[in-house]
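Lab notebook, bench 4. The sequencing result for the construct came back, and we need a structural model before the next group meeting so we can plan mutations. Quick request posted to the team channel:

Model the 3D structure of this chain.
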Amino acid sequence: MSGRYGRALTVAATVGSGLAAGVFFAFSTFVMTALGRLADREGLMAMQEINDAAPTPWFTLPWIGTAGACIALVVLAVRRRREAAAPYVLAGNFLYLVGIVVTFAYHIPKNDDLALVDPSGPGAASAWNDYRTAWTAWNHVRTLAFLAAAVLFAISLVATRRSEHTSTTTHPVGDQSVAADLAGSGVPR
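Done. Here's the predicted structure in token form:
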């Protein structure tokens, strides 16, 4: 989005979405695979520890900050809907929201359920393997949503830069292209 605040908010949303995508990309590509290679009891206990350690300010503040930037960007994009960046900003916000909804509607409840499983209890191995398979599949969804949001926010920055560059380009006095542009426009030369 144009303007100092619009640009700063878009950069924040780009970085925040990229950070979220990166964290969850790690889980999709190697963390869950590594935990699956452990004995069921150890894999389950390791994931319980990860889930217990994750909600720290360093993990949650970027999420909250990015969500705040996204809310402000939606307001700007609706108010400035004729700007070239507006559709990219709105689409990026939608995809960031998809990632958040998947996290809160699926992952957090599943993580809470896993916390209640006794690693030495009956059915623990089955609970762990069911959790790991479904959790990872839905993690792919939120990873792609956050990654696509980051890409769309980055594209919106490029669109803003291009439109600002186009609107501020000036032609030297006497430039024939300016005269050609004005010909037939009703603007006196």
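Helices lie at 4-37, 40-53, 57-79, 86-115, 124-168, 176-182.
Will bring this to the meeting.
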